[in-house]
């Protein structure tokens, strides 16, 4: 399923959607960035509460399909623009990481 | 072995938030060369972890990536404080990163283990008070 379609099915909002046709093939939840780079798979939707610039680099290198900021967290200043520049889909969820994951499980 | 393509980068030790620029650039360059995405992923993550280490601990340094037909080699060199006990530093979860770095999501003690995990060969040469040189290699299946 594409990130665009995921948005439609879950009601999550996108603050940056430069690659909406990217396929989501799994889900990973984590806030420790090295842990994410060690464990997340290419194509995963990555759920986190980390909102600083480094998440864009991590998503780029780990090749995740999108970042989903859970718990109503908003990206730090400049992060949205950076995500657009680097071609990273950045989504926001008002729900907890767990509830967001359940939404994704039902949608995928 | 045929021609080796080489990329060099200065890793800025001042700006933690922009760390990763060299790795992201390498990822782009390797993509342009048409390399396998999984190989690119391993190389760029291993390099990013090394880059972050140089920013956190050594005030920056130099990175070089050599692309040959059968392997990609990453060499990271800094003039930081050095690593007193490499075996301890290699242990998952061991970290000397300051709290400010941890609050950004790094410093979990997974950097060096990730570098080892994603590469086929890794060597650390370090002298306390002089600096550290990390060499990593990712083989390209023929």
Provide key terms for this protein.
heterodimer, A: 108 residues, alpha/beta, Udp-n-acetylmuramoylalanyl-d-glutamate--2,6- Diaminopimelate Ligase, Chain: A, domain 1, 5 helices, B: 142 residues, alpha+beta, Heat Shock Protein 90, 5 strands
Named at the architecture level, the CATH assignment of chain B is 2-Layer Sandwich
Total strand segments of chain B: 5
Major beta-sheet overview of chain B = 5 strands, antiparallel
CATH topology of chain B: Heat Shock Protein 90
What is the SS-derived class of chain A?
alpha/beta
How would you describe this structure to a colleague?
The complex is a heterodimer of chains A (108) and B (142). Chain A is 40% helix and 19% strand. With 108 residues, chain A is of the alpha/beta class. Chain A has one domain: Udp-n-acetylmuramoylalanyl-d-glutamate--2,6- Diaminopimelate Ligase, Chain: A, domain 1, CATH 3.40.1390. In chain A, strands 1-5-4-3-2 form a five-stranded mixed β-sheet, with helices on both faces. In chain A, helix 3 links the parallel strand 3 (44-48) and strand 4. In chain A, helix 2 packs parallel to helix 3 (54-62). Chain A is globular and about 30 Å long. Chain B has one domain (5-139): Heat Shock Protein 90 (2-Layer Sandwich). Chain B is 36% helix and 28% strand. Chain B contains five helices and five strands. Chain B has helices spanning 21-32, 37-58, 86-90, 99-102, 111-118, and strands at residues 5-12, 60-67, 71-78, 121-127, 131-139. The chains are: A alpha/beta (108), B alpha+beta (142). At the A-B interface, helix 2 and helix 3 of A face helix 1, helix 2 and helix 5 of B.
């Amino acid at each position: 399923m594409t990130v665009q379609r995921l948005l439609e099915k879950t009601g999550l909002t996108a603050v940056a959607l430069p690659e909406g046709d990217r396929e989501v093939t799994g889900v990973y939840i984590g806030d420790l960035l090295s842990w994410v780079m060690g464990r997340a798979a290419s194509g995963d939707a990555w759920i986190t509460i980390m909102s600083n610039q480094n998440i864009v680099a991590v998503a780029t290198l780990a090749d995740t399909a999108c970042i989903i900021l859970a718990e109503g967290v908003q990206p730090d200043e400049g992060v949205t623009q950076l995500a657009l520049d680097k071609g990273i889909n950045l989504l926001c969820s008002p729900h907890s990481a767990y509830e967001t994951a359940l939404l994704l499980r039902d949608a995928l | 072995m045929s021609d080796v393509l080489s990329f060099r980068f200065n890793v800025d030790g001042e700006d933690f938030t922009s760390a990763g620029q060299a790795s992201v650039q390498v990822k782009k360059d390797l993509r342009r060369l048409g390399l396998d995405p999984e190989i690119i992923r391993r190389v760029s993550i291993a390099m990013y972890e090394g880059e972050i280490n140089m920013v956190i601990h050594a005030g920056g340094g130099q990175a070089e990536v050599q692309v040959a037909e059968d392997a990609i080699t990453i060499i990271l060199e800094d003039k930081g404080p050095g690593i007193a006990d490499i075996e301890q530093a290699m242990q998952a979860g061991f970290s000397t990163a300051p709290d400010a770095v941890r609050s950004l999501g790094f410093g979990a003690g997974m950097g060096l283990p990730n570098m080892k995990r994603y590469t086929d060969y890794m060597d650390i040469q370090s002298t306390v008070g002089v600096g550290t040189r990390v060499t990593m290699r990712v083989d390209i299946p023929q």
